[in-house]
Amino acid sequence: MEPSLALYRRYRPETFAEVIGQDHVTEPLRAALANNRVNHAYLFSGPRGCGKTTSARILARALNCEKAPIADPCGECQSCRDLARGGPGSIDVIEIDAASHGGVDDARDLRERAFFAPVASRYKVYIIDEAHMVSTQGFNALLKLVEEPPEHLRFIFATTEPEKVIATIRSRTHHYPFRLIPPRTLSDYLAQICDQEGVKIDPAALPLVVRAGAGSARDSLSVLDQLLGGAGPDGVTYDVATNLLGYTPDNLLDEVVDSFAAGDGAGVFGVVDKVIETGQDPRRFTEDVLRRLRDLVIVAAVPDAPASGLIDAPEDQAERLVAQAARFGKAELVRAADLVAEGLTEMRGATTPRLLLELICARVLLPAVDHDALGLTARMDRLERRLAVAPAAADRVVEQRAERVVSRDHTPQPATPAPAVAAETPVVAEDAPVETQQPPAAPTPEPEPAPATSGSGAQLSLADVRRIWPDLLEAVKKMRRFTWILLSQNAQVIGVDATSLTVGFKTAGARDSFIGGGSEEILRQAAIDMIGADWKIETAVDPSAQPGSESAPRVKQSATRSEPPPSVPPPSEPPAWASDDGPAEREPAKPESIAAARSNIAPTRNGDEPAPAPSGPDPDADAHRDDPAADDNGLDSTELLQRELGATVIEEIPHD
């Protein structure tokens, strides 16, 4: 074949078996040809580039094949060679473009020549392309010929608008509607052509070619031909395809969707600015965002949609879609898709598409302003996700208590003399192992923190960290459930550089719980284990860090306090009893325990000198290392409740 020919001409099917995506048409035609039950007139309709004219030529070849009746042309006889791909053509097969020959005079000329017998073939076949362009007078001139043709005459009409063909002509034909080619079928076909051409193509670029072709084999081959013509040593890459076809890269779509999930207005409008600065079409970007939201809606409803074929996406992109859908509620996704679809309709013919795009993004970021059913349901989704952590917090309390009991039972105690106690409280001495004193080891210098890098060696951006944030939270969850509760429901990444990771908390109480509970080290170690990034964990109070954060309800102030009360933590924060700092549940005191406690009360000598303290284990030895000490900090009970629990004392009732 000539290499200068376009792909859609070089790979034009020559048999019905080579026609893709039209089995509902090709199989009945092959059966009719094999059984010699061919009609005198056919009407092929369907979208452009789906195989109507090609199938008409294959039908003409099969009709005039020397081995007829046969389902597919043999390709060996003279007639098959003349009508083959790149052949000279046959004088007995006439193709007419009705766009330029659709008048009544053209119809009369065809009618006069149709009565002559074929020169070298069995049938004289007229293929009338763009049949809907034939005028009404032209169809009326052909009506008698189409209704009662001579034995050697066959008609094949091809059109994209069958409704414009007059009813009297349609009623005399066998109508076969062609359809758009399914994306998966077309993608496999294009990959096969790339293999035959010897050009490598990125699997992620194939869906872009299929999308640009819009289900048309001819249009898809034209797009692929353009990409193959500009392919470099690496073949057709994803970047080349996105830049040439004008589609939004996946990294920008991931960034804007992650920002929507985090309620990060700066991130969303930063992506919009990138789109405009790089010269991309705001309408095309809006359409791409709508397609991404459509995929997320399907994934949220059907988690195995990528595997079942409902979504045509590479494996790595399918994993990202599942992770992104998990950050939204179903109502949130439907609402966002509805807003973007409505905005895309408004952008048609708009003179300021960027302004409309920014307004669309602003509406998506503010679900609280929607008072319709969809906006209310979206807010309920967020509340349900917050309340879902309460059972997890209770489980963590049980785990912590069990860990403390086990640690107390297995911690060796140094041998000490038994303290002097009251006579009525005998003490039984217990054997305890004596540990050999070892000199303290020299401290090992800590390595310098390495900058966070991605797989390619480049420093991770804020968008990259937000993309892997759900996976990082899963790693934290395996290490410490309480830290996972704090981060998943109250925090979001707001900054990152080579040495530090800044986490924003929506309230000061959540931030203090994170710092006071030793959760910084948990998050730092999880980042090291997962991506090898030794970050210094920075914290900040950022009410916008948690998506859907509502304003705190008003709290009644005490009349004796002049300063405003702190904001009440939302119900998504774990209660005080769910933290590591909470004391273990106490059992009722036994009589012997009460007697032992009384014996430890230091009596005075002569009313002024305290008695020496009994020796023995420290009564606070079992206290948690993170428990706050109110006496050491000089805080009264009100300030301690305010600092540790975020509570506000409304009124103090004096006790008699």
Give me some keywords for this one.
656 residues, alpha/beta, Rossmann fold, Helicase, Ruva Protein, domain 3, Zinc Finger, Delta Prime, domain 3, five-stranded parallel β-sheet, three-stranded mixed β-sheet
Detailed description of the structure:
The chain is of the alpha/beta class. It has four domains: 7-177, P-loop containing nucleotide triphosphate hydrolases (Rossmann fold), CATH 3.40.50.300; 183-245, Helicase, Ruva Protein, domain 3 (Orthogonal Bundle), CATH 1.10.8; 250-386, Zinc Finger, Delta Prime, domain 3 (Up-down Bundle); 389-406 and 449-585 and 623-656, DnaA, N-terminal domain (GMP Synthetase, Chain A, domain 3, 2-Layer Sandwich), CATH 3.30.300.180. The protein contains 27 helices and ten strands. Strands 2-3-4-1-5 form a five-stranded parallel sheet, covered by helices on one side. α12 (250-262) runs antiparallel to α13 (265-277), α12 packs across α21 (462-479) and α14 packs across α16 (315-325). Mean pLDDT is 76; it is low at 413-432, 434-451, 546-591 and 593-635.
